[in-house]
Amino acid sequence: MTSTATAATATPADTPPPAPPQPSRRGVELVLLVAAVLISVCGYLGVGLVKQHAVPADAAGYGAGLGGLALLAHIAVRLRAPYADPLLLPIAVLLNGLGLVFIFRLDLETPDDRAAPAQLIWSAVGVALFTAVVVLLRDHRVLRRYAYLCAALALLLMVAPGLFPAVNGAKIWVRIAGFSLQPAEFAKVLITVFFAAYLAANRGALTHTGRRVGRLRLPAGRVLGPIVTIWLLTVAVLVLERDLGTSLLFFAVFVVLLYVATGRTGWIAVGVLLAVAGAAAVGTVEPHVHGRVEEWLHPFAGIEAGKGPGQLAQSLFAFGAGGVLGTGLGRGDSPLIGFAMKSDFILATFGEELGLAGLTAVFLLYALLVARGYRAALGLRDPFGSLLAVGLATLLAVQVFVIAGGVTGLIPLTGMAMPFLAQGGSSVITNWIIIALLLRLSDRARAPGPTDRDGAATGHPGLTDTGPGPLSTVGIGVSVPASRGAGR
After folding, report:
1. What is d(CA 337, CA 358) in angstroms, rounded to the nearest whole number?
2. What is the distance between the alpha carbons of residues 105 and 329, in angstroms, rounded to a whole number?
């Protein structure tokens, strides 16, 4: 009797208290958004004062446009994703704003080819789609149902540019009625959804079945076959269209997600070996790629031959001229780089005019953006959501590495666009969609309690959490709390 009473009285004491409600941090987000817009507007004014010795005539319109877009996005997040990560949106707005500033700065060197107004319009389209994703996509797990449809649409988008003429040696553009798009930019999000959905559904079979070759266990062909087939088709199409940057991006995302889903480090080694072998083969056979490899190996060959510096050489000169603190906004000579100065080589303008300090700050913004994406993955309880967050964050990380490595001479150039910074409507729209998905995922990860805010266990019939996400179980040294609020 006494022991029973003791147990009864001990039970309430042993029960852990409920976790305190987590603040939504929307006020923090709003303050950071104001700071991001002010920094961008100050940069815009600075460029005008240096280059034109006057405040730009469209400065008010630029500030109002960027501020209005930031406010629209903030309202959408506040109303439909109140527990989303408060850093993702301000970082995206700041990077987008800085990109507009430097495109405007380079526009002043090419009065007949102004790209900043069009970039602001594309940014507005991107924010509109961002808002649509945040408002309409109530539960990210719905995307699981359309995995194979996403793969089919991605393949169609990547095949489409093959029907149009090549631009600068690559068939990656679709041009209709004066407008041009890069379908592969949209395809990369769709293919990431497919990879995440397939690996989440088959991660058990991928981890525990198949033959062992040395220290690596190869999954059964019936399990690995469909996803490898889709991946090979996408890479083959991109290689035929000479879009090697996107093919490398798809390959990296595929290998990273396979590693995260299975927890087997051997896939990283296999991926690196295949990437090196494939790059060496394509670089030897394909003349367009071979030319870029030769320029990477001998960036100053044009100067030695008396033909003048090429784009990569001019980019290296720009970084060297910038030093630690830079030449000052609007005071650099990076426009000498040539036709790709607003797209592929816009990072060289950052390096020259803001120096190593400014360039480091930009890279830290990207690193924080990627880190918050991985943080959301840690807090999600469903494998699909965790893998999708990892895949989307990896898309951004690999893009930044490939582009920064190309313009600094670390690796050969691939012709991709720096997220948010470089000129390109397709790129900025796609990156805003990625941010919207990461915000939706982080909202799910940080929401208090195991149920949806509508009171239901899941947002949609037939979509249920299946326990801890893959990041907590693959054995890669990550421990995730069981509560939904793990991704603070």
Report:
1. 20
2. 9
